[in-house]
Amino acid sequence: MMKKRLCLWSLVGLLGLCLAGCTTAPSGADQSLKNEVLHRLNADDLIRREVVGVTVEQGVITLIGTVSDEALRLRAISIAQGITGVQKVEDRLLRK
């Protein structure tokens, strides 16, 4: 029984290491886009009061978090879409 547990945990650890190796750091362009999106969202008097996170992968912006209403959701999307270099905006914002 003890050997089976040890084997199972070894496999879980190995799987974790393999999955960790599959992730890549954002490219310089993606990091610049993320910084610009965050800057513009925080510069907006209404949006900066909301909880909005940003991820970027190959120019695709994903907005994650919660906003107070539909108008603010659309506003955040519009801000992100208006930035040069953004290929697409994926909306994963929830309304409170």
Describe the structure.
The structure is a single chain. The protein is an alpha+beta fold and 96 residues long. The chain has a single domain (25-95), classed as Histidine-containing Protein, Chain: A (2-Layer Sandwich), CATH 3.30.1340.30. It has three helices and three strands. Strands 1-2-3 form a three-stranded mixed β-sheet, with helices on one face. A hairpin with a 2-residue loop joins strand 1 (51-57) and strand 2. The longest helix is centred in the first third of the chain and has 21 residues, at 2-22. The protein is globular. It starts with a helix and ends with a strand. 14% of the residues are buried.
Low-confidence stretches: 4-23
How much is the average pLDDT? Answer: 82
| Helix/strand/pairing category | alpha+beta
How many domains comprise the coordinates? 1
Q: Characterize the biggest β-sheet.
A: 3 strands, mixed
Order of helices and strands: HHEEHE
Distance between the termini: 49 Å
Q: What is the C-alpha radius of gyration, as a whole number of Å?
A: 19 Å
Describe the strand arrangement of the main beta sheet, using strand numbers: 1-2-3
Number of helices: 3
Given this structure, which CATH class is correct? Alpha Beta
Provide the CATH topology: Histidine-containing Protein, Chain: A
Helix content: 40-55%
Q: What is the correct CATH architecture? A: 2-Layer Sandwich
Give a summary of the structure in a few sentences:
The chain has 96 residues and is α+β, with helices and mostly antiparallel strands.
